Amino acid sequence: MSERIPVKNISPVKVHRPDKSKHDNAYNPRSRIYVRAVTGMLENIRRVLGLWFLGVFAILPWIQYEGHQAILFDIGAQRFNIFGLTLWPQDLTLLAWILMVSAFALFFVTTFAGRVWCGFMCPQTTWTFLYVWFEEKIEGSRNKRMKLDQRKADFDKIWRKTLKHIVWVSIALFTSITFVGYFTPIDYLLIEFFTFNSGFWATLSIIIFTVCTYGNAGWMREIMCLHICPYARFQSAMFDKDTFTVAYDSKRGEHRGPRGRKASREQNTEKGLGDCIDCNLCVQVCPTGIDIRNGLQYECINCGACVDACNGVMEKMNYPKGLISFTSEHQLAGGTTKIFRPKLIGYAIVLVLMTGLLVFEIVSRKPLGIDIIRDRNSLYRETGIGLIENVYTLKILNKSQHSHQYNISIQGLDGHQFIGETQVTVNSGEILNLPVSIAIHPKNLAETVTEFSFVLTTTDEAKDIQQVTEKSKFLYPNL
């Protein structure tokens, strides 16, 4: 206890407060980002993927399969049709598997290549680039759009702005009708909506999704990516030094500065200039308005627009491409990127296993189910002729897309008498409650609890004969 605790004197920290005279306290609204058009390999890939995504999204609801809409998520009827597969509330485990597979697929892709989902396949990005493309065709290039917004209202400005917003609203309306068409038969929905005969909820949904699409892709744009989308916040937890992201090679690019095209690269290097000519094209083409030269930022959606813009400039300057590229932190530091690493392999293994289990769950799923409920009022009863009777309720679920006839039989209970219907018809999606009873002479019972099975078999001309077996018990405690 005689030891003294050493005390160290620490000088107080000096707080540097901002000079109010040098700052304007007025509210600064969000500056609009004028995205510049760009051409290149990554832009072509994004356009192909975007057109494919839009095409699949627009065509799928119109496909017919065996007389009904191939993909229809009928919430009112609690039935999801996916071609020949019909999912009911009892099949929600499949939805859980699908969500888990999607989550691990996202983890795997993000660990390998960063936010490429955001840059190439995200609906927000796809619709934003589509809106920007129409905006450019109607109002002109980036510089022309900036001058048009600064100009006073005249006939040319009014008709261009009006046409642009008409096109935007039309795209949003088409998108919302198509989306709602996944939940309501789209052929009737299209006619009823434009003849003002659609239902309240369908009409309200179309209006809401139209406003949301128009607002998100037309006005909010990068706000969704920067402030609303949660993926931007937790993506860094999946990054490592071998993750491929869009990055700027500062060792090669700095010091940046303008220079003439006639001067050779070696001459500029002797002057202390790097390969970056500070043209700011990488900033002008960025849909979120960031400068990739400032390093990795959570706002970057890995769309690669700055890569195409910079490669175009490097080509004109006769410099090697790749000043901005999809690369890793290890590669920028002069090392080698490790493709096969424990975290990525782990995600891949889990993804493969979960995908296999999902496929097995779908393949092994039977479109027929049966539950056995014993009579809760009495364990058994004796009939007038001395037989022992147990009462059951069969809950038969037809999970197929068509009505079927089923035959009911008993296995494992010799000498029984079946009292009730042995053939029933169950409509598609129907749960039939069927009360039945089984009677047997006591001499045929060797135990107080005898296990047996109900067997349900399709008897109509179905493509595939379905059969399910459900175990139950016959009770007679006084044996």
Molecular structure report:
The structure is a single chain. The protein is of the alpha+beta class. Among the domains are: about 240-330, no CATH class; about 370-475, Sandwich (Immunoglobulin-like), CATH 2.60.40. The protein is about 40% helix and about 20% strand. The protein has helices at about 40-60, 90-115, 115-120, 125-140, 140-150, 155-180, 185-195, 200-220, 220-230, 230-235, 250-255, 265-270, 280-285, 305-315, 330, 340-365, and strands spanning about 65, 70, 70-75, 80, 85, 245-250, 325, 370-375, 380, 390-400, 405-410, 415-420, 425, 430-440, 450-460, 465-475. Strands 8, 9, 10, 12 and 14 form a five-stranded antiparallel sheet that branches. It has a four-stranded antiparallel sheet with strand order 13-11-15-16, with no helix packed on it. Strand 3 and strand 4 (about 80) form a beta hairpin. Helix 6 (about 155-180) packs across helix 8 (about 200-220). Mean pLDDT is about 85; it is low at about 20-30. This is Cytochrome c oxidase accessory protein CcoG. Keywords: 4Fe-4S, Electron transport, Iron, Iron-sulfur, Membrane, Metal-binding, Transmembrane, Transmembrane helix, Transport. InterPro entries: 4Fe4S_Fe-S-bd, 4Fe4S_Fe_S_CS, Cyt_c_oxidase_cbb3_FixG, Electron_Trans/Redox, FixG_C, Helical_ferredxn, Ig-like_fold. It holds the Pfam family Fer4_5. It comes from Paraglaciecola algarum.
